[in-house]
Amino acid sequence: MSTDTFPAGRPADRLRDGDQPADRAPSAAARKAGGVAGWIDDRTGSAKGVNYLLRKVFPDHWSFMLGEIAMYSLIICLISGALLTLWFVPSAGHTIYDGSYVPLRGQQMSEAYASTLNISFDVRGGLIVRQIHHWAALMFIVGLTVHMFRVFFTGAFRKPRELNWVIGTVLALLAAIEGFAGYSLPDDLLSGTGIRAMEGFVQTAPVIGSYLAYGIFGGPFPGEAIIPRLYSAHVLLLPAILVGLFTAHIVLVAVQKHTQFPGPGRTNDNVVGYRVMPVYAAKAGGFFFIVFGVIALISALFTINPIWAYGPYDPSPVTAGSQPDWYMGAYDGALRLLPGWLEFSFLGFTMSLNIALGALVLLPLVYIVVGVYPFVERWVTGDDREHHLLDRPRNNPTRTGIGMAGIVAYSVFMFAAGNDIMAIKLGMSINDITWAFRIGLFVLPPLTFWVTKRICLSLQRRDRDLALHARESGRIIRGADGSFHERHDALTDHERWILVQHEPVEPLQLTPDVDENGVARPAARKDRLRAKVSHFYFKDAVNPVTPAELAAAHHDGHQAEAIEAPFDYEGIEGDSDHTPGTGGQGADTDAGRSEAAERGIGSASRLRE
Amino acid sequence: MNALAARRRHPAAIAILLMLGLLVTGFAYAAVAPQPAKAESSSAEDVAAGKQLFQANCASCHGVNAEGRATGNGDKIAGPALAGVGAAAVDFQMGTGRMPMRAPAVQAPRGQVQFTQDQIDQVGAYIASLAPGPAVPSEEDVDASKGDPAKGGELFRVNCAMCHNFAGSGGALTRGKYAPSLMGVESKHIYEAMETGPQSMPVFNDGNIAPEDKRDVIAFLKSVEDTPQQGGHALGSLGPVTEGWFAWFFGLGILIAAAVWLGQKSA
């Protein structure tokens, strides 16, 4: 910086080395902007905070933008929802429709439904705003779900981010409830059926069910209270909590710094990436417009929730294909899978467990299981350190397997909600489909766990193999002594670092039940359980290649296999295509990794925090 | 009036009143009672030709004299007896290609129509000659332009939507049976289906849904077919399942592609 402006042509210029070049005078526009910023800073002291935010460094990876899909969809929902409130009438009052949609003219309906028809057909641009609102709501929950997948499978929920994971879980639950309240508002035939179903769920709460339902509806179903109540929850209460928790979520991300994938130069103490200003301001800002554009495009081309086709709500009819939006589908599916004999009479009370288990138990259970997982894993590993480097999913096969099994279990429930659509579209019997899901619910998750874990372990072994022996080039070289060997292309240090950076793990060892004095330790039973779970997690762990193993592989060729033996597994033993030779392997690849050298790697243009 | 009043205690008065009461009730009932199924008048040649067609194409399942046949396998039947189903049932089943059935199945699917309308009418005349049954509706009965789609929509949601879906897209029934899609079905066949209750469908006779109301239902279904898709592509009018599927595959797919693209655009 200092010498750039002074060409080192003449010897005398050396004297000027270290001189500070005069600052160029700022342009008029910059002075004006600076003046405004200064004026604001003088009055709010915000410069420090803004400076902090604009200088934050974020790492680069496409999967870090999944949460942004959710964030932007939420913002789109807020904007489009505010517009819809200008015309929506949250009232169950009776009216007769005389708007421009002919097939419903002269029909009795609620004011909520009539105003939604009005938004769809008579307010200019109303239909597309409605469809943007609804598609954005679906994308919001899709986005936050895949964001949770990313956080889970990379272990980003570990200390110090457990709390943020819990906040995110609560956000996910509230988003689903917010969605339910929203699609129930138009009071069309489908949403009315949904509210009726909800009333049924509430009624299945043992003992208090019917009182609770009366309380929620202000009397018997449907009454006129539920629409205004859902409305205030949907536009006031839930959005306030959502935005509040969401802000906390983001602030915690800023305070704790973003996690990053492992790589050369990336440690637990830095963040390698780009600053918000200008790179991420452009990327993330641009992504907002991409998300908005894609949602607007979908809304313009594809119908969502055609309330005019459903007709006004009337408690007597119900339509085939009555399903909730996808994020409530799992609980609807559970009701379809639960057998009817779970309803029985107990001490004169009817216990509708066939409904309660699917509706009242499963819904909170899903989010409790998700929210509690980080604490379970911490208890198993006993790991109390902070983690800012992400796991590659393959490097924690058990966690990845558990996650996939959970996703599959949830999906079985969710797909079961569409059993009638599958039956008619695939020409199958709905009874057979339901039975397939019932069996699948118990068979598929363990199967998925096993398959996922085996795939992860295989990938890890492949990584080990790659780190130890590099890539087989397919070129056979004849040595001076007439021997043949295959040339292996060397990995770069960067490539190898990714393969070997993770921590070796092993199951916790059981400590003796009695201490050295022969007195039983009170914690022994808990420890036994913990050791058992730890064994489940880590018993077949494939650990990364150590520098010693790498050096041995390079210098001793075939004898390296002996060093690997303790970790050995079926595939690697008979590694006969890899010919030993003092001149072969070692000559082509770099020597083993040196801890210090690796740490130093990192492109100079990248910033650290 | 005086003369009548004077004779009100005449011994015959009670008998005359009883007769009057019975006559009034009888005529009133005859005026408002559901019309008995009417057999369409048709020529003897039609019946004879229809019988021939029937015996050649239908008798293997329905019996030589349309008396129905058992398979001999438990209480399963090959085809039901057809006396009294009327020409409307024949016109529906053969006119939509459901009969002759191509293969044994839980339900006869729609198919290629195998006969000309004249031949179908002849078979209908033969079946109607066996016992009175509902006749093929008139042109006016099924004229959608004379119906009220709003009222038809209400009737449809109350009586039909639980199986056929809110937009007539069809729905699943038990054990592989289904309520078919009503899109692209001829008005006449919709009317006949309501009147005769084919397969798993209940019968909606004129006592359940009056002929004008049936016409309203037809008008509603035709309006669903004819109105443009206001919100864009309707994704099959199947409700939230397809919407969720679309959000996951296309919405998320496009956005992830955009995220990957942005992630690769390093500064």
TrEMBL record, chain A:
It is a multi-pass membrane protein. The keyword Zinc does not apply. Its cofactor is heme. It holds the Pfam family Cytochrom_B_N_2. Residues 1-30, 570-609 are annotated as: Disordered. Residues 36-262 form the Cytochrome b/b6 N-terminal region profile domain. Its EC number is 7.1.1.8. It is found in: Cell membrane. InterPro entries: Cyt_b/b6_N (IPR005797), Cytb/b6-like_sf (IPR027387), Di-haem_cyt_TM (IPR016174). The keyword Transport applies. Keywords: Cell membrane, Electron transport, Heme, Iron, Membrane, Metal-binding, Respiratory chain, Translocase, Transmembrane, Transmembrane helix, Transport. It catalyses: a quinol + 2 Fe(III)-[cytochrome c](out) = a quinone + 2 Fe(II)-[cytochrome c](out) + 2 H(+)(out). Its main location: membrane. The chain crosses the membrane at residues 69-89, 132-153, 165-185, 231-255, 287-308, 346-376, 397-415, 435-452. GO terms for molecular function: metal ion binding; oxidoreductase activity; quinol-cytochrome-c reductase activity. Residues 11-22 have a biased composition (Basic and acidic residues). It is an enzyme of class 7 (translocase). One of its GO terms (cellular component) is plasma membrane. One of its GO terms (biological process) is respiratory electron transport chain. It comes from the Bacteria. This is Cytochrome bc1 complex cytochrome b subunit.
Automatic annotation (TrEMBL), chain B:
GO terms for molecular function: heme binding; iron ion binding; lyase activity; quinol-cytochrome-c reductase activity. It comes from the Bacteria. Binds 2 heme c groups covalently per subunit. The chain crosses the membrane at residues 245-263. Keywords: Cell membrane, Electron transport, Heme, Iron, Lyase, Membrane, Metal-binding, Repeat, Respiratory chain, Signal, Translocase, Transmembrane, Transmembrane helix, Transport. Residues 1-30 form the signal peptide. It holds the Pfam family Cytochrome_CBB3. Heme c 1 binds at C58, C61, H62. It is a multi-pass membrane protein. The cytochrome bc1 complex is composed of a cytochrome b (QcrB), the Rieske iron-sulfur protein (QcrA) and a diheme cytochrome c (QcrC) subunit. This is Cytochrome bc1 complex cytochrome c subunit. It comes from Knoellia locipacati.
